[in-house]
Please model this.
Amino acid sequence: MYCSHCGQSQDPLFNYCQYDGTALQPKKEGLTFKQRESQYCSACGEKNNTSANYCAHCAQSLLTPTKTAALLETANSRMKQHVQSDSVRNLQKSMLQPHRLLTAAITTVASFIVVILLALVLHTTIDSSKELSPTDALFSPQVAIGNVKSSTSTEQESYKGITDWVMGLHSVSSTLDASKTRIRDSGSEDVQYAYNTSFSGGFFVLLLLPILLFTVAGYVYARFRSSDSLLERFTMSLAIGFLYSVIIGITSFIAGFSFDKEIKLDSSSTLQEITLDYSFWSAFYHAFLLATLFSFLGMLLQYGSFRTTKHLVSRMKYGMAFHQAFATLWRGTLISMLFVFIMITIQWIDSSSSKDSYFTLLLTVGSQVGIFLWSILNGSNLHFDFIEKGGETTTFSIFGGFSEDKPPLFMSGVKKMLEQEVHIYWLAYGGILLSLALFIYAGYKMYQHNRQVLLQQIGVFACTYAVLASLFISWMSFSAEMSSKETSSVAFFGFSFWSTLFITLIVSALLTYAGSFIAKLRLKS
Model:
């Protein structure tokens, strides 16, 4: 054989030219280059043109690598960057298309109009009633200001308006300021009391209305844009969420009420003031997550077969993990609610309550307790705290039952109610099998899909499930912080976001891994 660089005859057993060190018989598979650096054929040793692909004398292939920078490096990294840049460019282009944005804007405005109509219905049916039932009072701020109202006027005034119900449908945090000042004829003022109360929390039965609304809105949008890809649908759900959150955020500025009334006395007058305001960031944040998440689920529903996240399995890398996270949360919450509904129904049959109060109690308390029950079954701690001049807390955990720290009398009453009326021990320890079964089933299905235990899949599942469960349970936990010149107190009933996130993340990951391991043993046997 001959050297392809100098043309000298070489020993066939050599790998390099003994005259100039050029590699003999280089690998040619998968190489592409513009021109050859060598001039001599490695088979016959004859000189050839550098632009020729084959030897003019023996027809041997002349494709040999050159020593240029472009030929020494691979194009894989540049190809990945090119694909990523194209994806980002296509994403930006799809979001900025006028017809897409117009459809998203119309969907958002139509959804807000429906929310206004729902708020109007709630306002006319609850706030306009002359007498509030105990269950209806849970939704009305008239109870919170009842003492001031009764002492200043005998008229039935409705302080809560339509925009306040819009805030209530999204569990927006609020601040209530109440003060009473005595003004003497001499001009001196005596502040008898001044309270500032921050309140957050919400009922699932109210939150369910925008959830269903945006699921339908996403489905309707996808019907008009049925050719959109999964990525385009997700970007449009982000656009809908952003537009809707801006609208709700602006509404929070005009929501609320301001009430003041002065009562003339013999030598003085009394001025009583009440103001209710809503948090802009709470309104923006809650509206964005609700609109984005559930409009996207509605768009997935448009694919057909009455499925939502199941369509992600064949359309993205971690689709099975996302699907099982959503499905586990949905199944667990729904079954827990059914347990509570059955318990309430049994107790209602034994009582003499009216039919109307039964359905109201079933929807409001039953759904709320059902969600709390599922969070307990995930290992989270249910807190009932009232802190004033020291720590006074009561906590229930499925691992340790009740734990108390200086419990006041009313907390002992709450504990008694949870034990005797709600049967919290029976629900918690009886329902723990449900939690084990659903998480193990999720891990089992993921192993069946991947045919191996993938820690990445389990990690995505655990993170997705923990974030979703912690977000919604924290929205439906009630907290109130009241402060005045003399004292301050904090009341909380529900679950902490961070502790729920941490505990749920660990529990879901371990049980899902156990399910995958069981599937592995079963399929191998």
Observations:
- Confidence is low (pLDDT under 50) at residues 29-33, 66-86, 130-159.
- The longest strand covers residues 189-200.
- Residues 319-350 form the longest helix (32 residues).
- The chain has three domains: 1-73, 97-307, 309-525.
